[in-house]
Amino acid sequence: QDTDEFILPTGANKTRGRFELAFFTIGGCCMTGAAFGALNGLRLGLKETQNMVWSKPRNVQILNMVTRQGALWANTLGSLALLYSAFGVVIEKTRGAEDDLNTIAAGTLTGMLYKSTGRV
After folding, report:
1. What gap in Å lies between CA 86 and CA 97, rounded to an integer?
2. If you count DSSP H runs as helices and E runs as strands, how many of each does the chain have, helices first?
3. Which of 22, 33, 97, 119 could crosslink 74 through cysteines, CB 3.0-4.6 Å?
């Protein structure tokens, strides 16, 4: 049978648009950033406290580093994903086309805006 599995409203696309995918992109980047930051924080915490004996102060210091780095990376990647998604949606709506040029332009504008703040 070659019938569709889902009932779609009249005029609806069978694929998700860029706006619907933006939420997945932003959330995924936040979660990825948090996981990477937590691992990086664990590495840094263990490195900075290697001369300490295992005790509550060492555990607290490692935990602080994990949460600090996790939040930092989650915010950074989430902000970049938000900028990328917003630029992508605006460019798509402005041009009225869904193609790779939108992706390239959104990535370029996001990188330019991120680097314009003077961050290395």
Report:
1. 16
2. 3, 0
3. 33
| Of the candidates 83, 70, 75, the residue with the CA atom closest to the CA atom of residue 36 | 70
Q: What are the φ and ψ backbone dihedral angles of 95, each rounded to 5 degrees?
A: -80, -30
Interval 47-77: pLDDT, tens? 999 888 888 999 999 999 999 999 999 999 9
Tokens of 15: 């694929």
Structure tokens belonging to residue 39: 């691992």
Whether the CB-CB separation of 80 and 101 falls below 8 Å is answered with: no
pTM of the model: 0.76
Domain ranges of the chain: 17-107
